[in-house]
Amino acid sequence: MRTVITWLLCSLAAAMPAAAAELHAPKDIAAGTDFAITVNGDSHGTFYLIGPATAEKRSVENGSEISVPGTDTEKAGNYQAILCSDECVSAEFYVHAAEADRLSLLVHPSRVPVATTNAISAVAIALDRFHNIVFSHAQVDFSVNSSNGSSASHAQPTNRGIAWIRLTSAAKASSTKISAAVGETTETRVVEQVASEACNLHIKSYWEANHLVVQTDPVRDCSGNNVPDGTVVSFTKTDSSGKTTVDAPIKKGIAKAEMPVVGHARISVASGVVLGNELNVGGAR
Amino acid sequence: MKRSLHLLVSVAVLFVVSGYSVAQSSPSVEFNAANAGPRAVEDLTSESVPRDYAFAWQNLSQALYENRPGLLDAYFTGFAKSSLEQRIKQQAQSGLHVRYTDHGHKLNVLFYSPNGDLMQIEDDAQLEMQILDGGKVIQSQPLHVRYMVLMTPGADRWMVRDLESTPASRSGE
Question: Which of A5, A28, B50, B58 supports an S-S bond with B29, CB 3.0-4.6 Å?
Answer without folding.
Answer: B50
